[in-house]
Design a protein that fits this description.
Helix content: over 70%
Radius of gyration: 17 Å
Oligomer: single chain
Structural class: mainly alpha
Largest sheet: none
Distance between the termini: 24 Å
Strand content: under 5%
Bound molecules: protoporphyrin IX containing FE
Number of domains: 1
């Protein structure tokens, strides 16, 4: 597994831990009220688990496992995937800042734009690697 995949998958596991922790607190809060502000963390719970965990784990595994080329570079446009990783994480925290931390709709919007660009860049990297066994 390439180093970049190891990093992105590790990051995904950190989001899994964060998302489950917030989820467990929310679940507890439903039975035993802990703090009135806790419901404000629901958007963070969703963002950590759907984007931070599910999307990032998929990206990390896809970067590793999609067909490579024998000739150099084995993974063309790897830089696109790396920039996508940075933008996706920026996007996650902007969304959390815009919702849970009350940053407002423009911060949320900026986060979603960063995430959308990250997805487009990752797709741009992966496109050439979606090939058959014969390389077509
Ligand atoms: C990959 C795993 C998970 C994902 C993608 C996920 C996603 C979501 C989403 C989308 C919602 C909003 C549902 C809605 O508003 O209708 C939600 C709500 C919630 N989640 Fe999760 N979740 C995950 C795991 C967990 C875990 C492990 C826990 C608890 C330990 C948890 C606790 C909660 C609670 C308490 C709510 C609020 C439910 C309510 O509105 O009454 N989640 N989750």
């Amino acid at each position: 597994m390439p180093r970049f995949s190891r990093w992105i998958i590790r990051a995904a596991f950190i989001y899994l831990l964060l998302g489950f922790t917030v989820g467990a607190l929310l679940l507890t809060h439903k039975g035993v009220p802990l703090h009135p502000a806790l419901w404000g963390w629901l958007p963070a719970h969703i963002e950590f688990l759907l984007v931070g965990w599910v999307v990032q784990l998929t990206m990390g595994v896809a970067f590793w496992i999609l067909p490579r080329y024998w000739e150099k570079p084995a993974r063309p446009k790897a830089r696109y995937a790396q920039v996508a990783f940075g933008l996706l994480n920026l996007g996650i925290w902007l969304v959390v800042a815009g919702t849970t931390f009350g940053g407002g709709r423009w911060v949320l919007f900026a986060g979603r734009v960063a995430e959308a660009v990250a997805v487009a860049l990752f797709a741009g990297h992966a496109w050439q690697r979606i090939v058959s066994r014969e390389g077509m």
